[in-house]
Amino acid sequence: MTSEADLGPRLSRRLAYLLKRAMVDLDTLHEQHLRPFGITARELAVLLFLDGREPESQQQAAAHLGVDRTTMVGLLDALEGKDLVARRPDVEDRRRNVIVLTDTGQATLRKAMRASDAAERQLLAELDDREAAQLRELLKRVTSGRA
Question: What residue stretches are annotated with the HTH marR-type domain (predicted)?
Fold first, then answer.
């Protein structure tokens, strides 16, 4: 692990560096924990978004998630190839397709959520429960209205 002495105090205290470092570490942990389920953290985010919602088009989902349309098509193609989501005609407008979780997608989501929770706990192991909750709340405040 890199220390403040290795980086110097000017870099090691910069918010951009700290957030990036935390994200890189969390991505690595997610990769390890999600590997058995054959999905990535980005794919998990899509499954989480779709779960329990009224079906939406891929364009609507992309807009909500802040993902460009081309990237969203790639994510959905990969998830569909794993039988985790399906594109279905919209019952109200058959010209439009909506994205839904499959039964396999719902089962995978439940297992992957536990794995993701374990990755987050591992990242936040130096914090107690109150500090971890406070960090989440502070980050939500900082990012509210920007998504």
Answer: 12-144
